[in-house]
Please model this.
Amino acid sequence: MPKYLLENQASERLIFRKLKASDFDDWLPFYHNPKSTQFWEGLPTDPVKACREQFNRVFERYENDLGGMNALISKESGELVGICGLLVQTVDNVQELEIGYSILPKHWLRGYAIEAAQKCKKYAFDNNFSDSLISIVHVDNVPSQKVAKKNGMCLDKTRTYKDNPVHIFRVNRG
Model:
């Protein structure tokens, strides 16, 4: 199993598993909703191309032990509700472990992002992956900033990351 994946893990309402190529059509609605990507510059405007690029990055991370997004499956319905995971990132020339999260628009405002992010934090600290974790959030993405704060993170610094102005939120092992 690639390092940092939460395969076979679960939270109260979610099952974590590796993202599969067959999840593509279920994840595509994320890119069809303009609000999903409104804060991030540089993404393809074609939803199919944007989704394909994301899937390629996820599978590349799996292959190179750079963490990756896990599919979040609802225990109740069995459907894909989002993706979340631990990602190896380089910020200011320092390798960090990020908690990344995205939820399908039809499942927004149900607490899935914070539930998944908290599970990632606990899993990372329980497995001694790092003494601190970050979340990279666009400066205008207030909903994702709220998730980071609810996950015990504090604003650490503001940077340009992949040509986007971002806040780096951080939580240290407690």
